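User: I'm curious whether this sequence folds into something compact or stays loose and floppy. Could you predict its structure so I can see for myself?
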Amino acid sequence: MARHIALLRGINLGARNRVPMPALRELLAERGYEDPRTLLQSGNVLVSSRKRPQAVGRELEALIAERFGLDIPVVVRSRDELAAVVGGNPLAGVAADPRRLQVSFLSAALEPSVVSALEAADLEPERLAVRGREIYVWHAAGIQRSAAAKLLTDAKLGVTATARNWNTVTALLELAGED
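Assistant: Here's the prediction. I'll summarize afterward.
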């Protein structure tokens, strides 16, 4: 049984897209997912399943639409994939504050032209690195004034993206590692 980390995009931000975490955990348990857990209120869900990550994501999107009436994109990584994201952090030597280091998890790999445009962007003092289906960004002055953040919309990337700060990423890996 594999452990999966489901990242729900854009829930529980103010009054929009409200999904109560206890109700979500209950729904997942009802539908056969083992040991559903959530971290924070911002759409971080861990489940165990024999299904592949993409199948888990599609099913969670359908369950959320059915139960809560919301069209919420879900990006899923296996525990091993998340461990590789943490272990392969290309900005580890740059990012001094883990709250300003974000990882955007993508639903699919970017087109090469999009990767080239991102890597060519003048973002100083920010740093950006694309690695497979993740984009690591060091927001040196915070995300509010971030030039990089403006480049990471679904429309510009051509795929669904949902971001988590480094503290959340490492907390999810730690929670996923529990037996």
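Summary: Helices lie at 21-30, 53-68, 79-87, 112-120, 147-151, 154-157, 166-176. The beta strands are 2-8, 34-39, 44-49, 74-78, 101-106, 127-131, 134-138, 161-165.
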